[in-house]
Write a structure and sequence with these properties.
The chain contains 9 helices and 20 strands.
Length: about 375
């Protein structure tokens, strides 16, 4: 079977790319090793916030939220639980740069004094020398419900979804990729254009297929969090503690996902054992932010590998050698926040349409950068 576009990888970015390409009349197939959204997006906390470091990321997150909001209105479903997002940080670290960027991209936010925070959320502990940055429209995305809806729309639009394909490789002839082959013969397809987006496995599939590593190289690090019973009921937004590098994402009034800002290099994509020392240290800081949370206890731990690049920017663009191959990787620990918009944009790229000029900074490039594991999802403070 031959398709106009074969997308290798069934994460959110690939799903949104498929939807956009189908709307433009392409015959599209998704080839997924397991089932749709079974990789990084299934392990994500689902946090969607505009409180990010780079101006481009703030814009990508804003436009992704816009896409989700449009889908909610179109299908009469709720995918994003708008809890709001509150960053707590020493006043001295809040600069005019934040306000200038937010105003320039149209993000609505509030700067909250300690007494205002206590009036809104009485259980939140905040120091007299701290300030809160609050973005009301942020929240937690239900990736499972969203992926289920997209799958139905892809199939309704005539797209093909091939799941449980096993290990996959790409076959090239000259300057063009011509075929994808998989452990499951039913998933071996020919295509005119290809998108490779398989999260942390992108580099290994690329190297196995073509005998070279992608540029820039893929940097792997551990993403880990704990599901915590808070020991009481709390009506709080998502909280990011800039001082302790701690985030608290409420799942219910009593339960939250708690994680850390610092990251630790992973040996490879199978290095998923949690670093309990970091998690325990993180959880020990919880009572400093939530009154009464010393009664909290861990329900479960999630640990997996995330991918970025040495300059901490993802890669979205056409490969430098194969003229019909487009790659996407390195979306790090907040890929969910950017995937809807970047999926639409890579589809436009494949189509030859005009794309967002901001994507230029994400094009394949040399592996220059820090090359170390640092806190890469700190809000801009």
């Amino acid at each position: 079977m031959k398709y106009d576009v074969v997308i290798v990888g069934g994460g959110l970015l690939g799903q949104f790319a498929a939807l956009e390409l189908l709307s433009r009349g392409y015959r599209v197939a998704i080839v997924e090793r397991d089932i749709l959204c079974s990789g990084s997006c299934s392990k994500s906390t689902g946090i969607m916030t505009r409180q990010l470091v780079l101006r481009a990321d703030i814009i990508f997150a804003q436009r992704s939220i816009d896409i989700i909001t449009k889908m909610e209105k179109e299908y009469g479903e709720h995918f994003l639980r708008r809890t709001g997002f509150l960053t707590l940080s020493p006043i001295s670290r809040v600069t005019k740069r934040l306000e200038l960027i937010y105003r320039s991209v149209g993000v609505e936010y509030k700067l909250l004094e300690p007494h205002e925070i206590k009036e809104l959320w009485e259980t939140v502990i905040v120091g007299d020398n701290e300030i809160g940055i609050y973005t009301e429209g942020d929240g937690m995305l239900n990736t499972g419900s969203l992926s289920y809806r997209i799958k139905k729309e892809i199939e309704r639009s005539g797209g093909s979804i091939l799941e449980r394909c096993g290990e996959t490789s790409l076959i090239a002839d000259g300057k063009y990729v011509v075929r994808v082959i998989s452990d499951n013969d039913e998933c071996s397809l020919y295509g005119d254009l290809f998108i490779l987006d398989v999260g942390v496995d992108t580099a290994s599939i690329f190297t196995r297929s073509f005998g070279r590593t992608p540029e820039p190289e893929q940097l792997l690090f551990k993403c880990q969090s704990a599901s915590v019973d808070l020991g009481g009921e709390y009506g709080i937004p998502i909280i990011y503690d800039g001082k302790n590098h701690l985030y608290i994402a409420p799942e219910t009034k009593r339960r939250a996902i708690v994680g850390d800002g610092p990251c630790k290099i992973a040996r490879d994509q199978n290095d998923i054992a949690p670093d309990r020392e970091i998690l325990i240290e993180t959880l020990d800081k919880l009572p400093e932010r939530l009154a009464g949370s010393e009664r909290s206890h861990i329900i479960g731990i999630t640990s997996h590998v995330c991918g970025t690049t040495p300059d901490f920017l993802p890669v979205i663009g056409r490969d430098s050698v194969y003229e019909n191959l487009y790659i996407a990787y390195g979306l790090s620990s907040y890929g969910t926040m950017r995937s809807p918009y970047l999926g639409v944009e890579i589809a436009k790229m494949v189509n030859g349409s005009k794309i967002d000029p901001l994507l230029k900074i994400l094009s394949p490039r040399s592996s220059k950068g820090l090359g170390t594991c640092e806190e890469i999802h700190t809000p801009i403070i």
